[in-house]
User: Which sequence fits this backbone?
């Protein structure tokens, strides 16, 4: 079942990327705190990741001008890979740290 879900998620990401490339990228202002909160909450709802702690550190109201679907996909993939790595190492007390900072007031 887990394997099927992983394959399904990869196909969904692939179809999303194909759609983005064929339709052109739409850029918008993305509130990163809201996006990251949504992603980490979704992972926390999954029974498999109930014991994982998410440590998020970022300036308030940090905004990125980019394609929201693409940024969402990238962040989900990075977090998913971190969780898989922790699971492979049998870490009982797993955590994912996310740290963002402003560079040159941008």
Assistant:
């Amino acid at each position: 079942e887990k394997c099927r879900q992983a394959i399904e998620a990869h196909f969904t990401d692939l179809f999303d990327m194909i759609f983005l490339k064929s339709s052109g990228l739409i850029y918008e202002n993305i509130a990163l705190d809201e996006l990251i909160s949504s992603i980490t909450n979704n992972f926390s709802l999954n029974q498999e990741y109930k014991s994982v702690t998410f440590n998020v550190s970022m300036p308030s109201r940090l905004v990125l001008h980019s394609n929201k679907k693409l940024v969402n996909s990238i962040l989900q993939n990075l977090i998913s890979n971190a969780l898989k790595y922790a699971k492979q190492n049998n870490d009982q007390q797993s955590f994912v740290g996310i740290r963002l900072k402003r560079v040159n007031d941008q």
